[in-house]
Specification:
globular, 120 residues, 4 helices
Length: 120
Amino acid sequence: MTAESTDPAVFAIARENRGSTAILRLRGDLDMLTAPILDEALSAASDCATVLLDVSTVGFVGSSGLSQFVKHHRLSAERGTRLVVVTGTNRVVLRPLTLLQLDLVLNLADTIEDALAVTS
């Protein structure tokens, strides 16, 4: 994971734990350079029953980032855990998810609160 920065262009992941749920809040661009950082963060949270991946404020999502969503969705299903991608109204995320029909595959939520309500 990267250190917190005040520069919105810098990719960062902040982790918060709420019981057996890990909340990973992403900021910056999720591309081929930063996808391995996400992979590491999701792998580190794999011991949690639920992982909420908040991408509501990312500025860009490339195919490498989308690939991480799918990879960890499958891994969590195999483990019997749950990955929820929190999109908010971020069209940068929603558009490729919809175009690739990943919105039909992944667990999506509009807000952290919505995701927590479903996973409780």
